[in-house]
Amino acid sequence: MTNTQKTTQNTLSQKVAVLLANMEKSQYLKLEQLEKMQFLQLVQLAAYAAEHSTWFAKRFKESGIAANELTSLLALRKLPILTRRELQLNAAEIYCRKIPANHTPVAKVKTSGSSGQPVEVFRNLHTQLYWLAHGLREHLWHKRNFKGKLAAVRANLDGNKITVRADWGEPVSLLYQSGTAIAIPINMNVSDQLKILKEFDADYLLIYPNNLAAILDEMRLSKKKLGNLKQIRTIGETLSPALRSRVKKQLGVGIADMYSSQEVGNIAIECPVSGLYHIMAENLIVEVLDENGEQCSPGETGRVVVTDLINYATPLLRYDIGDYAEVGMRCSCGRNLQTLKRIMGRTRNMLIVNGEKRWPLVGFHDYCKVAPVVQYQLIQKTSELIEVRLVVEKALNKKQEKDLAKIINEALQHNFKLKFTYFEKQIPRSATGKFEEFICEI
Asked: Residue 287: which H helix or E strand, with range?
């Protein structure tokens, strides 16, 4: 590491440490104080968006509300919800033409979320700082022993290769010394994943729920165990009560779940005391709305609408993230961060290839290179047949279908027969309101 890199790393560590210390205090503020803090941030962001985002300048004008009037939830709800489709169609106008100097650098992220509708957003330095601080907050809440070993089964690893490192990496490495870590590609066969996990013998495992369920199936069949495991951390999907119970029974450990998205970072962290999910109110306003657009009460389920208070690159004000959640009660832990009880709408199934289960990487990042895909869903009908459901801006020709099929099969690492089915406006959700971008019907 060069001297410049060391200086940058030290500066980042200091900023994360300060932010973490501030959050340690803010989580115990009274709800009214938290809300006051949120809307002071919102007014500043909205004013900036009105000046530097063509799309939001127009939206404020059409809504008849000025940026400096966004001082309460009641005022915020005068602003129409930003849909994923609007973000798809108007991204260039939504992006700010100018970024504050102390918010750089920026980086573009691309995600399909839980809706199968790819979107692109720019995230800035401050969103990265909060992502790191929230990660450390979650570790510290659960009192993990950083000297232990960490295993992660992840997507988008460089070269789809197993990576072993001497520490846990960021954010832990910014402030703490830690044990060794291993990262395993999620599209590796489950039997091979389990073999590596058993050999590494980790204290903590980070994994997607559906992949975890497949690991449990493989453990039952192979009679293998993970004897040193102390806790499992799940991300990226809905975690069912049944899977929690199964893990406790089969492995004798608990699960700590996290609710996040590429667009806005960590949304809510599971409380180690109550099991409720605490909303990261320091940088987000989270609304859970019923069919009439009204805020849900504790115990009620609605769609999740998020306002990111720190992204001055891609303003996301009242952004419909595509998920559904149940509102929680006030937590018994003493923190006054609002809660969610359950998160729904983020479940994906495992792909089956040659009798083996694996995570379905579907290659959605490259769809736009060959076809104007608005929304997609893949359904595995048999061991060799996958139905590709699409909403497109205009009809595809045979070459586009062929090129798209090549991308999908290369991502899935198998030569499936693909059947294309088209929908006019939107691919239907299930009866429960969930949308799964990949469904296995075998």
From this structure: strand 284-289
Where residue 114 falls among pLDDT bands split at 50, 70, 90?
Answer: low
Closest CA to 437 of 9, 98, 115, 65: 115
Q: Which of 205, 321, 211 is nearest to 255 (CA)?
A: 205
Amino acid at 392: V
The answer to whether the beta carbons of residues 208 and 186 sit under 8 Å apart is yes
Residue 369 and residue 287: Cα distance in Å, rounded?
35
Rounded Cα distance between 223 and 287, Å, is: 45
Overall pTM surpassing 0.90 (yes/no): no
Domains and CATH numbers, the chain: 3-131+261-344 (3.40.50.12780), 351-440 (3.30.300.30)
Report the pLDDT averaged over residues 216-244: 89
How many angstroms separate the CA atoms of 268 and 424, rounded? Answer: 34
For 402-428, what is each residue's pLDDT tens digit?
Answer: 999 999 999 999 999 999 999 987 888
Q: Which residue has the tokens 């061991």?
A: 383
Mean pLDDT over each residue of the chain, to the nearest integer:
91
Rounding to the nearest 10 degrees, give the CA dihedral for residues 131, 137, 143, 144: 10
Q: Could you tell me which of 295, 293, 264 has the C-alpha nearest to residue 280? A: 264
The dihedral formed by the CA atoms of 391, 394, 400 and 402, expressed in degrees to the nearest 10: 40
Closest CA to 271 of 282, 289, 255: 255
Contacts for 349 with CB less than 8 Å, ≥ 6 apart: 210, 360, 380, 436, 438, 439, 440
Report the candidate in 87, 92, 78 with the shortest Cα–Cα distance to residue 115. Answer: 87
pLDDT 10s digits, 252-267? 999 999 999 989 999 9
Q: In terms of Cα–Cα distance, which of 141, 398, 104 is closest to 276?
A: 141
Q: Could you identify the residue written with the tokens 């806005």?
A: 264
* Best CA proximity match to 60, nearest among 317, 329, 277, 268: 317
Instruction: Give the pLDDT confidence score for residue 432 in this predicted structure.
Output: 47
